[in-house]
Amino acid sequence: MSDADSKLTDSVKPMFYDPAERRIRSFVTRTGRVSEAQARAIETLGPKFCIPYQKAILDVDAVFGRHAPVVFEIGFGMGETSAKISAGMPEKNFIGVEVHTPGVGSLLKLTDEMGLSNQRIIQHDAYEVLTHMIAPASLHGIHVFFPDPWHKARHNKRRLIQGPLVALLASRLVPGGYLHCATDWEDYAVQMLEVLSAEPALENTAEGYAPRPAYRPVTKFENRGLRLGHGVWDLVFQKR
Protein backbone atom coordinates (compact mmCIF):
# COMPACT_ATOMS: atom_id res chain seq x y z
CA MET A 1 0.00 0.00 0.00
CA SER A 2 1.37 3.43 -0.91
CA ASP A 3 2.12 6.19 1.57
CA ALA A 4 -0.69 8.18 -0.03
CA ASP A 5 -3.11 5.38 0.77
CA SER A 6 -2.08 5.51 4.44
CA LYS A 7 -2.98 9.20 4.61
CA LEU A 8 -6.54 8.97 3.35
CA THR A 9 -8.86 11.48 4.96
CA ASP A 10 -12.58 11.79 5.45
CA SER A 11 -14.86 14.69 6.35
CA VAL A 12 -17.20 13.86 9.18
CA LYS A 13 -18.18 14.79 12.71
CA PRO A 14 -20.92 13.62 15.14
CA MET A 15 -24.59 14.29 14.56
CA PHE A 16 -26.52 17.52 14.93
CA TYR A 17 -29.88 19.04 14.15
CA ASP A 18 -29.93 21.12 10.98
CA PRO A 19 -32.66 23.78 11.33
CA ALA A 20 -32.47 24.56 7.62
CA GLU A 21 -33.46 21.00 6.76
CA ARG A 22 -35.60 20.49 9.89
CA ARG A 23 -34.08 17.11 10.64
CA ILE A 24 -31.16 15.41 12.32
CA ARG A 25 -27.95 15.36 10.32
CA SER A 26 -25.24 12.91 11.26
CA PHE A 27 -22.14 14.92 10.50
CA VAL A 28 -20.48 18.20 9.73
CA THR A 29 -17.16 18.63 7.99
CA ARG A 30 -13.86 17.79 9.64
CA THR A 31 -10.73 15.93 8.56
CA GLY A 32 -9.66 12.58 9.97
CA ARG A 33 -6.58 10.52 9.21
CA VAL A 34 -6.99 6.92 8.13
CA SER A 35 -4.10 4.67 9.12
CA GLU A 36 -2.59 2.13 6.77
CA ALA A 37 -4.11 -0.72 8.80
CA GLN A 38 -7.56 0.90 8.74
CA ALA A 39 -7.36 1.52 4.99
CA ARG A 40 -6.30 -2.10 4.43
CA ALA A 41 -9.23 -3.32 6.55
CA ILE A 42 -11.67 -1.22 4.53
CA GLU A 43 -10.25 -2.57 1.27
CA THR A 44 -10.13 -6.24 2.26
CA LEU A 45 -12.93 -6.59 4.81
CA GLY A 46 -15.35 -3.89 3.69
CA PRO A 47 -16.92 -6.03 0.93
CA LYS A 48 -17.77 -8.69 3.53
CA PHE A 49 -18.90 -6.64 6.51
CA CYS A 50 -20.01 -3.26 5.11
CA ILE A 51 -23.55 -2.74 3.80
CA PRO A 52 -23.91 -0.14 1.02
CA TYR A 53 -26.45 2.59 1.67
CA GLN A 54 -29.60 2.26 -0.42
CA LYS A 55 -33.04 3.82 -0.48
CA ALA A 56 -34.71 0.44 0.01
CA ILE A 57 -35.58 -1.67 3.04
CA LEU A 58 -32.68 -3.90 4.00
CA ASP A 59 -33.16 -7.68 3.99
CA VAL A 60 -31.42 -8.19 7.30
CA ASP A 61 -31.77 -11.98 7.35
CA ALA A 62 -30.08 -12.19 3.96
CA VAL A 63 -27.27 -9.89 5.05
CA PHE A 64 -26.44 -12.01 8.10
CA GLY A 65 -27.44 -15.36 6.64
CA ARG A 66 -29.74 -16.07 9.58
CA HIS A 67 -32.76 -14.79 11.48
CA ALA A 68 -31.88 -13.22 14.84
CA PRO A 69 -32.75 -10.16 16.94
CA VAL A 70 -31.15 -7.00 15.53
CA VAL A 71 -29.42 -4.27 17.54
CA PHE A 72 -28.69 -0.97 15.79
CA GLU A 73 -25.92 1.38 16.96
CA ILE A 74 -25.53 5.04 16.03
CA GLY A 75 -21.99 6.43 16.08
CA PHE A 76 -19.70 3.64 17.25
CA GLY A 77 -16.52 5.73 17.24
CA MET A 78 -13.47 3.48 16.94
CA GLY A 79 -15.59 0.40 17.58
CA GLU A 80 -13.99 -1.11 20.70
CA THR A 81 -17.24 -1.10 22.68
CA SER A 82 -19.24 -2.35 19.70
CA ALA A 83 -16.90 -5.28 19.14
CA LYS A 84 -17.01 -6.29 22.81
CA ILE A 85 -20.81 -6.15 22.87
CA SER A 86 -21.13 -8.15 19.64
CA ALA A 87 -18.69 -10.75 20.98
CA GLY A 88 -20.66 -11.01 24.21
CA MET A 89 -24.00 -11.55 22.49
CA PRO A 90 -23.37 -13.88 19.53
CA GLU A 91 -27.08 -14.75 19.43
CA LYS A 92 -27.88 -11.21 18.17
CA ASN A 93 -27.09 -9.38 14.94
CA PHE A 94 -25.50 -5.92 15.19
CA ILE A 95 -25.60 -3.09 12.66
CA GLY A 96 -23.33 -0.15 13.45
CA VAL A 97 -23.68 3.16 11.61
CA GLU A 98 -20.74 5.56 11.53
CA VAL A 99 -19.58 8.22 9.07
CA HIS A 100 -16.04 8.49 10.41
CA THR A 101 -13.80 6.47 8.07
CA PRO A 102 -11.04 5.71 10.62
CA GLY A 103 -13.71 4.30 12.94
CA VAL A 104 -15.11 2.11 10.18
CA GLY A 105 -11.64 0.77 9.45
CA SER A 106 -10.99 0.18 13.14
CA LEU A 107 -14.20 -1.79 13.72
CA LEU A 108 -13.61 -3.83 10.56
CA LYS A 109 -10.18 -4.76 11.88
CA LEU A 110 -11.62 -5.73 15.29
CA THR A 111 -14.43 -7.70 13.65
CA ASP A 112 -11.87 -9.78 11.78
CA GLU A 113 -9.49 -10.21 14.71
CA MET A 114 -12.29 -11.29 17.05
CA GLY A 115 -14.02 -13.52 14.51
CA LEU A 116 -17.33 -11.66 14.73
CA SER A 117 -19.84 -13.01 12.24
CA ASN A 118 -22.70 -10.99 13.78
CA GLN A 119 -21.37 -7.47 13.09
CA ARG A 120 -22.14 -5.32 10.02
CA ILE A 121 -21.38 -1.66 9.27
CA ILE A 122 -23.10 1.06 7.26
CA GLN A 123 -21.05 4.19 6.58
CA HIS A 124 -23.73 6.80 6.09
CA ASP A 125 -26.00 9.34 7.79
CA ALA A 126 -27.89 7.37 10.44
CA TYR A 127 -31.08 9.36 9.97
CA GLU A 128 -31.23 8.40 6.30
CA VAL A 129 -30.35 4.79 7.07
CA LEU A 130 -33.17 4.58 9.61
CA THR A 131 -35.62 6.30 7.28
CA HIS A 132 -34.92 4.31 4.13
CA MET A 133 -33.26 1.01 5.09
CA ILE A 134 -34.71 -0.06 8.43
CA ALA A 135 -38.28 -1.35 8.46
CA PRO A 136 -40.71 -0.14 11.13
CA ALA A 137 -40.95 -2.41 14.17
CA SER A 138 -37.89 -4.44 13.20
CA LEU A 139 -35.16 -3.59 15.74
CA HIS A 140 -34.85 -5.27 19.13
CA GLY A 141 -32.41 -2.71 20.47
CA ILE A 142 -30.79 0.64 19.70
CA HIS A 143 -27.54 1.90 21.24
CA VAL A 144 -26.44 5.55 21.32
CA PHE A 145 -23.34 5.74 23.51
CA PHE A 146 -21.61 9.02 24.35
CA PRO A 147 -22.79 11.17 21.45
CA ASP A 148 -21.18 14.57 21.04
CA PRO A 149 -22.44 16.65 24.01
CA TRP A 150 -22.13 20.01 22.23
CA HIS A 151 -21.50 21.36 25.71
CA LYS A 152 -21.70 25.08 24.90
CA ALA A 153 -25.23 26.32 25.54
CA ARG A 154 -25.51 27.94 22.12
CA HIS A 155 -24.72 24.57 20.51
CA ASN A 156 -27.20 22.46 22.52
CA LYS A 157 -29.62 22.51 19.60
CA ARG A 158 -27.10 20.43 17.65
CA ARG A 159 -27.35 17.50 20.04
CA LEU A 160 -28.44 14.20 18.55
CA ILE A 161 -31.05 13.14 21.12
CA GLN A 162 -34.01 15.33 20.24
CA GLY A 163 -37.70 14.67 19.72
CA PRO A 164 -37.77 14.08 15.93
CA LEU A 165 -35.02 11.46 15.98
CA VAL A 166 -36.35 9.76 19.12
CA ALA A 167 -39.77 9.40 17.46
CA LEU A 168 -38.07 7.80 14.44
CA LEU A 169 -36.05 5.47 16.66
CA ALA A 170 -39.17 4.43 18.57
CA SER A 171 -40.97 3.65 15.31
CA ARG A 172 -38.20 1.20 14.33
CA LEU A 173 -38.33 -0.77 17.58
CA VAL A 174 -40.41 -3.88 18.05
CA PRO A 175 -42.82 -3.77 21.02
CA GLY A 176 -40.65 -4.46 24.04
CA GLY A 177 -37.50 -3.36 22.21
CA TYR A 178 -35.15 -0.99 24.01
CA LEU A 179 -33.34 2.30 23.39
CA HIS A 180 -30.16 2.63 25.45
CA CYS A 181 -28.38 5.99 25.62
CA ALA A 182 -25.34 6.90 27.70
CA THR A 183 -23.51 10.16 28.33
CA ASP A 184 -20.85 11.56 30.64
CA TRP A 185 -22.25 15.11 30.51
CA GLU A 186 -24.81 15.69 33.26
CA ASP A 187 -26.75 18.45 31.52
CA TYR A 188 -27.03 16.28 28.41
CA ALA A 189 -28.25 13.42 30.61
CA VAL A 190 -30.96 15.72 31.96
CA GLN A 191 -31.98 16.69 28.43
CA MET A 192 -31.96 13.04 27.30
CA LEU A 193 -34.21 12.07 30.18
CA GLU A 194 -36.65 14.88 29.33
CA VAL A 195 -36.74 14.09 25.60
CA LEU A 196 -37.04 10.32 26.02
CA SER A 197 -39.72 10.69 28.70
CA ALA A 198 -41.74 12.91 26.37
CA GLU A 199 -41.93 10.25 23.64
CA PRO A 200 -45.31 8.51 24.11
CA ALA A 201 -44.16 5.29 22.44
CA LEU A 202 -41.45 4.76 25.05
CA GLU A 203 -41.44 4.05 28.78
CA ASN A 204 -38.55 4.27 31.20
CA THR A 205 -37.25 0.98 32.57
CA ALA A 206 -35.95 2.74 35.68
CA GLU A 207 -36.86 5.53 38.05
CA GLY A 208 -34.86 8.17 36.22
CA TYR A 209 -31.41 6.94 35.20
CA ALA A 210 -30.68 3.24 34.87
CA PRO A 211 -27.82 1.19 36.29
CA ARG A 212 -25.25 0.44 33.59
CA PRO A 213 -26.41 -2.77 31.88
CA ALA A 214 -23.81 -5.53 32.13
CA TYR A 215 -23.51 -5.76 28.35
CA ARG A 216 -22.12 -2.22 28.05
CA PRO A 217 -18.40 -2.39 28.89
CA VAL A 218 -16.68 0.45 30.68
CA THR A 219 -14.23 2.12 28.27
CA LYS A 220 -10.74 3.25 29.28
CA PHE A 221 -11.85 6.87 28.89
CA GLU A 222 -14.88 6.24 31.07
CA ASN A 223 -12.71 4.58 33.72
CA ARG A 224 -10.38 7.57 33.70
CA GLY A 225 -13.33 9.91 34.12
CA LEU A 226 -14.75 7.86 36.97
CA ARG A 227 -11.39 7.98 38.75
CA LEU A 228 -11.52 11.76 38.43
CA GLY A 229 -14.99 11.82 39.92
CA HIS A 230 -16.90 12.36 36.69
CA GLY A 231 -20.34 10.82 36.36
CA VAL A 232 -21.80 8.58 33.66
CA TRP A 233 -25.53 8.34 33.07
CA ASP A 234 -27.31 5.46 31.34
CA LEU A 235 -30.90 5.70 30.14
CA VAL A 236 -32.79 2.61 29.04
CA PHE A 237 -36.27 3.06 27.61
CA GLN A 238 -38.58 0.38 26.24
CA LYS A 239 -41.07 0.43 23.38
CA ARG A 240 -44.61 0.14 24.70
UniProtKB/TrEMBL annotation:
S-adenosyl-L-methionine binds at E73, E98, D125, D148. The keyword Transmembrane helix does not apply. Gene3D superfamilies: Vaccinia Virus protein VP39. Its EC number is 2.1.1.33. Substrate binds at K152, D184, T219, K220, F221, E222. SUPFAM superfamilies: S-adenosyl-L-methionine-dependent methyltransferases (SSF53335). It comes from the Bacteria. Residues 154-159 are annotated as: Interaction with RNA. The keyword Lipid biosynthesis does not apply. Keywords: Methyltransferase, S-adenosyl-L-methionine, Transferase, tRNA processing. It catalyses: guanosine(46) in tRNA + S-adenosyl-L-methionine = N(7)-methylguanosine(46) in tRNA + S-adenosyl-L-homocysteine. Pfam families: Methyltransf_4. It is an enzyme of class 2 (transferase). One of its GO terms (cellular component) is tRNA methyltransferase complex. GO terms for molecular function: tRNA (guanine(46)-N7)-methyltransferase activity. Pathway: tRNA modification; N(7)-methylguanine-tRNA biosynthesis. Belongs to the class I-like SAM-binding methyltransferase superfamily. TrmB family. Catalyzes the formation of N(7)-methylguanine at position 46 (m7G46) in tRNA. This is tRNA (guanine-N(7)-)-methyltransferase.
